[in-house]
Design goal:
The chain contains 24 helices and 18 strands. By secondary structure, the protein is α/β, with parallel strands linked by helices. The chain has a 6-stranded parallel beta sheet with strand order 9-8-10-11-13-12, sandwiched between helices. Strands 1-2-3-7-6 form a 5-stranded parallel beta sheet, with helices on both faces. The chain is elongated, with a radius of gyration of 28 Å. The structure holds thiamine diphosphate and magnesium ion. Thiamine diphosphate binds next to helix 2, helix 6 and strand 4.
Length: 652
């Protein structure tokens, strides 16, 4: 490294180790090891404007190795982002500091995504790169033509999600995706040869990636590899051989540099070794100025770009305007005019077919279950290798990557990704779902085959605890619609909510309509609402969701024949009910002393509505392989059984 660039890199190193030391916790090793590589990237290649972190055509820099968060915070501070001040860095890892332990996505800050769960950032980066290609096709290459860089470590590449995401990226030929692999051969337990002997070159080449190898402390090699990657025809990985904890006489090259402060004495030795005679957090003006100048380059670039953008502004705004309302209004009326007994997955398909006709920003897909999830309609066009004019992605059997990629698609600039799999495999999606919720991203998870109602495929495919588990994720709306009208309403709620992801749990089996009259208002927006009652005065409330609302109605009517009167509450979204006014909730929840719930899944999340004394009809065991009506019977989910139990409860 030239003296000048070495200084720039050392600025990152010392901010990182001093912040970790002050916080008395954090990960100094990675920032020390990768400082040289990112200095060359930011100085010579990265297109970014710290004055407008939201510029749509900026290069994306994703820190998949989120534990090295101080590397990112240092870069953002040094290049002049207003989001991160020196004080923020001094507050690393303290309550409410933007410099959180791991990078937490925040719009307009330069922190492009939340990372920490290793490997997720790689999938996000694939989503960013894909979004760039899709939007480039729509707006032209003068508007969208940026790179996505992702910094990933040994850990990211060991994670299964990386295999899925890299494989799809290679298949689709996402040439604007560049990975910087921090190939330091160290992770927490020690040298990586304790657990991995992959041939990385062969691995990447077999995915359809270019694989370049550099010494991560050699300026020329880094520069040249990045140059080569700019013109690649396929995605590129640059393997950077680095020394973790570079500059630390006693800890570099060992796992001890990974995740704890170096200690005051060792830091003094690093200062000596790297000839850095500055106090902690005291940045020499000259170096600071040099870094700020790097940040200023982007202003001109954006200005140049704005000329092109002004010509396309209307098109861009129209694409992201999301005018769905009319589609929903018309279709809602049509549903009532032609009441059908269909599965909610099929209802979902009908809605999607109409939405896709008018909307340009919905990007559909499925993890190889398009025909089962009903995510692909006749109006979709497939995205293919090197051809991004479509709006539907065949993710292959890659649920983990699909969901991480959808987060990237949503984060990029406002595309609306939805993707399908079976609800049981939400377990394979969970890490990314949690991050969608935490990052407040509008990602829509279309999850069909939502209960034992799927029948013969049996317990491995029948979700039991999944609904309950997903409902416990903060800021995630789990919708379980009961018929076509409710499915439409839930889709509308999912699309109109800009800051929450949604899960749509849909049936495989056909359902009779429970909503037979046209109501303009979106009833599902209340989370729960009364769908029927057998008398003005009722003594029992029956809560149910999705496919069990019909069963609840049946129970209610049976009881009425014996002068036991009840009301049925359809609960398409528990979380939305919890947000209603006290008066509304009281009316729904507290009209009767006796309450029961019916849902073909774990019962534990109904107690809050029915109380300790209520009866929860559900399944707290694995399912069974049989025709679905027999499975319902096996688990006592029949009107006969429920009626009998209710009468016992009421002493009648
Ligand atoms: C999914 C997941 N599993 C485990 C961890 C805990 N963890 C954080 S860093 C790390 C080791 C990563 O090794 P590497 O990527 O080589 O980072 P380096 O030590 O080189 O900085 C582990 C296991 C995590 N953050 N995410
Ligand atoms: Mg490592």
């Amino acid at each position: 490294m030239s003296k000048k660039n070495k200084d720039l890199a050392n600025a990152i190193r010392f901010l990182s180790i001093d912040a970790v030391q002050k916080a008395n916790s954090g990960h100094p090793g990675m920032p020390m090891g990768m400082a040289d590589v990112v200095t060359i990237l930011f100085k010579y290649y990265l297109k970014f404007n710290p004055q407008n972190p939201n510029w749509i055509n900026r290069d994306r820099f994703v820190l998949s190795a989120g534990h090295g968060s101080m590397l990112l915070y240092s870069l953002l501070y040094l290049t002049g982002y207003k989001s991160i001040s020196l004080n923020d860095i001094k507050n690393f890892r303290q309550l409410n500091s933007i410099c959180a332990g791991h990078p937490e996505y925040k719009i307009n800050t330069g922190i492009e995504t939340t990372t920490g769960p290793l490997g997720q950032g790689i999938a996000n980066a694939v989503g960013f790169a894909l979004a760039e290609e899709i939007l480039k096709k729509k707006f032209g290459k003068n508007i969208l033509n940026h790179k996505t860089y992702v910094l990933a470590g040994d850990g990211c590449l060991m994670e299964g999600i990386s295999h899925e995401a890299l494989s799809l990226a290679g298949h689709l030929r996402l040439k604007n995706l560049i990975m910087l692999f921090d190939n330091n051969s160290i992770s927490i337990d020690g040298p990586t040869n304790l657990s991995v002997s992959d041939n990385y070159k062969k691995r990447f080449n077999s995915y359809g990636w270019d694989y370049l190898e550099v010494d991560g402390h050699n300026e020329k090699q880094i520069y040249n590899a990045l140059k080569k990657a700019q013109k690649a025809k396929r995605p590129t990985t640059i393997s950077c051989k680095t020394t973790i904890g570079y500059g630390s006489p006693n800890k570099s090259g060992t796992a001890s540099a990974h995740g704890s402060p170096l200690g005051k004495d060792e830091i003094n030795l690093v200062r000596k070794k790297l000839k850095w005679n500055h106090e902690p957090f005291k940045m020499p003006q000259k170096i600071l100025r040099e870094w700020k100048e790097i940040g200023l380059k982007g202003i001109k670039e954006e200005l140049k770009w704005t000329k092109y953008y002004n010509k396309k502004k209307k098109l861009v705004e129209k694409t992201f305007s999301n005018k769905f309302k009319r589609v929903f209004e018309i279709q809602k009326q049509n549903i009532i005019k032609n009441l059908e007994t269909i599965a909610t997955r099929k209802s979902s398909e009908k809605i999607l077919a109409n939405l896709t006709k008018v909307n340009n920003s919905l990007i559909g897909g499925s993890a190889d279950l398009s025909g089962s999830n009903n995510t692909k309609t006749k109006n979709h066009t497939i995205i293919k290798p090197g051809d991004f004019k479509g709006n539907y992605i065949h993710y292959g059997v890659r649920e983990h990557a699909m969901c991480g990629i959808m987060n990237g698609l949503a984060l990029h600039s406002g595309l609306i990704p939805y993707g399908g799999t079976f609800l049981i495999f939400s377990d394979y999606c969970k890490p990314s779902i949690r991050l969608s919720a935490f990052m407040k991203q509008r990602v829509i998870y279309v999850m069909s085959h939502d209960s034992i109602g799927l029948g013969e495929d049996g317990p491995t495919h029948q979700p039991i605890e999944q609904l309950s588990s997903l409902r416990s994720v903060p800021n995630l709306n789990v919708f379980r619609p009961a018929d076509e009208t409710e499915t439409l309403e839930c889709w509308q709620l999912a699309l109109e909510n800009l800051s929450s992801p949604s899960v749509l749990a849909l049936t495989r089996q056909k359902l009779e309509p429970v909503r037979k009259k046209f109501i303009k208002e979106n009833k599902c927006s209340y989370g729960a609402y009364e769908i029927s009652r057998t008398n003005n005065n009722v003594e029992l409330t029956i809560f149910a969701s999705g496919s069990e609302v019909n069963l609840a109605n049946e129970v209610s009517h049976k009881l009425a024949t014996e002068n036991i009167y009840s009301k049925v509450i359809s609960v398409p979204c528990q979380k939305l009910l919890e947000k209603q006014t006290n008066a509304y909730k009281k009316n729904i929840l507290e009209e009767t002393k006796f309450k029961i719930s019916i849902e073909a899944g774990a019962t534990n999340n109904w107690e809050k509505f029915i109380g300790k004394k209520g009866l929860a009809f559900g399944i707290d065991d694995f399912g069974k392989s049989a025709p679905y009506k027999n499975v319902y019977k096996h688990f006592g989910l029949t009107s006969e059984n429920i009626t009998k139990k209710v009468k016992e409860m009421l002493n009648k």
